[in-house]
Amino acid sequence: MLTDLRPSELVYRGLKSAGIDIVASVPCVNLQELLCLISSDPDIMHIPVTREEEGIGICAGAYMGGRSPAIAMQNSGLGNSINALASLNMLYGIPLLMVISHRGTQGERLVGQIPMGRLTEPLLNAMGITFFRPRPNDAEEMIEAAWSLAVSERHPVAILLDIQFWEWRAAAQS
Amino acid sequence: MKRIDAIAIIAEMADASNALIVCNLGYPSRELFYVRDRPENFYMLGSMGLASSIALGLSLALPERRVMAIDGDGSVLMNLGTLATIASFAPSNYLLVVLDNRVYGSTGCQPTCTSRCTDLAAVARGAGVRYVRVVSSEEELRMSLSGSGVVVAIVEPGNADVPVVPLSPEEILSRFMERASPRMRRS
Q1: pLDDT at residue B185, as a whole number
Q2: Does B33 score more than 90 pLDDT?
Q3: What domain range is A54 assigned to?
């Protein structure tokens, strides 16, 4: 049954259904299992990067070379990526799927995550970047739809995965 | 060596090997367009610092195709981390050429840190890039362009008096992708 899968597996299935074949990443504790799944998939090239903005550039180049790229990062990395998203992806019309661990949301324990946690949606809105907030049971379908939208609109699209999303496993299985 | 002459040599060598070029924004793209425009040139118009990273993504996506990045000292200093990523993947089809004129040439020639103490070739080596060379003449540059890794080419500051690239971002991307990517693979 689909709901027996862990949140990370459901996100991974979404990437597979979307046909994502290259993923740049900067880790977040909530992305660790997803990044392991991506690394062990021979059909996905995993590019750990040093900074999110660099990953935006690598994903743009990969798209220009015929790949279907995604970046996996924490929402703090959105702040590091804004100029690249605007003056590379949005300027030229280069699609990108952004899988974002949204920290600073309900249940956050680190005060340092709060400012970007609050700014994430306003920043995406200001940039005109469509975002989805799936629950685990619709994550696969929503991620696939998000990539289709990115391609048809030639624009970045974001998936926001908050703390509740990742804690779903504990709630369901403990 | 003037930068426009270095760019002409890089473009000639790229053309001979059917290589894709990702070119840094500002005057370097204008000079490249002026000396040898071709659809295989991707002219950056924004996202300063990312020429090296865009070219890395291209080279990983197209391992059979030669990819060259034309970058500058100011923009490499803005994205030094990518040298570590380049080193860790070390694609054999990837060459980063840093045209080091010691200044931010497109914004009024303010000095960069390479004008004082920073050695970008040493930084690249320290990041783990295996093949790094420094060239300062046209002949040395010509000899250095066939391999992979990083070339730091010392050039004079100053921009050639050439017009802006008269292409829209959409045109730059679409004609580049027609030549770059085997679109059939995507369906």
Answers
A1: 46
A2: yes
A3: 2-173
What ipTM was assigned to the predicted interfaces of this complex?
Answer: 0.96
CATH (domain of A52): 3.40.50.970
pTM of the model: 0.96
Cβ A142 vs Cβ A14: under 8 Å: yes
Asked if residue B177 has pLDDT above 80, the reply is yes
Counted domains in chain A: 1
Mean pLDDT of B30-50: 98
Mark the ranges of chain A whose per-residue pLDDT is less than 50: 170, 174
Give the pLDDT mean for B57-69: 98
According to the model, what pLDDT value does residue A100 have?
A: 98
- The 3-state secondary structure of chain A reads CHHHCCHHHHHHHHHHHHCCCEEEECCCHHHHHHHHHHHCCCCCEEEECCCHHHHHHHHHHHHHCCCCEEEEEECHHHHHHHHHHHHHHHHHCCCEEEEEEECCCCCCCCHHHHHHHHHHHHHHHHHCCCEECCCHHHHHHHHHHHHHHHHHHCCEEEEEEEHHHHHHHHHHHC
Q: Which residues of A touch B173 (CB under 8 A)?
A: 64, 92-94
Residues of B at the A interface (Cβ-Cβ below 8 Å)? 22, 42, 44-50, 52-62, 65, 79, 81-82, 84-85, 88-89, 169-170, 172-173, 176-177, 180-183, 185-186
Cα atoms in the Cβ-side hemisphere of radius 13 Å centred on A87: 15
The per-residue pLDDT for B187 is 39
Name every residue whose Cβ is closer than 8 Å to that of residue A1 and which is 6 or more positions away in sequence: none
Strand partners, B97: B70, B151
